[in-house]
Design brief:
alpha+beta
Length: about 110
């Protein structure tokens, strides 16, 4: 099983830096685990496809949740290059992560 290359949008790196060190380590560990198979669960992977959330077009993006820390990691896949692109790291309780993901993907 090959590991996908993990790339971070600069904004997602800033999101990660805002977390306390223990949460940031857990996010990084989760991202490494997901990189083993970041495809949607329907394809045997770890990701939950987002589709349309609250009127936002998030088709092509997936999320994983760190339940204990209340954090969502939203990412997209570049299948041909074998890349997993982390778009947003944010709080689960706040739907702002979906708005941020939509905005950041428009600026590709």
């Amino acid at each position: 099983m090959s590991v996908w290359e993990v790339c971070w949008k600069s904004e997602a790196l800033r999101d990660l830096e805002r977390l306390d060190a223990s949460k940031a380590r857990r996010v990084l560990a989760q991202v490494r685990r997901v990189a083993l198979n970041p495809r949607p669960r329907s394809q045997g992977g770890y990701g939950k496809p987002l589709g349309n959330k609250g009127g936002l077009d998030l088709v092509g993006l997936c999320e994983v949740k760190l339940w204990g820390d209340g954090i969502r990691v939203i990412y997209g896949l570049e299948e041909r290059e074998g890349k997993m692109v982390v778009v947003v790291v944010g709080l689960r309780s706040d739907n702002e992560v979906y708005r941020l993901a939509a905005r950041r993907m428009r600026r590709r």
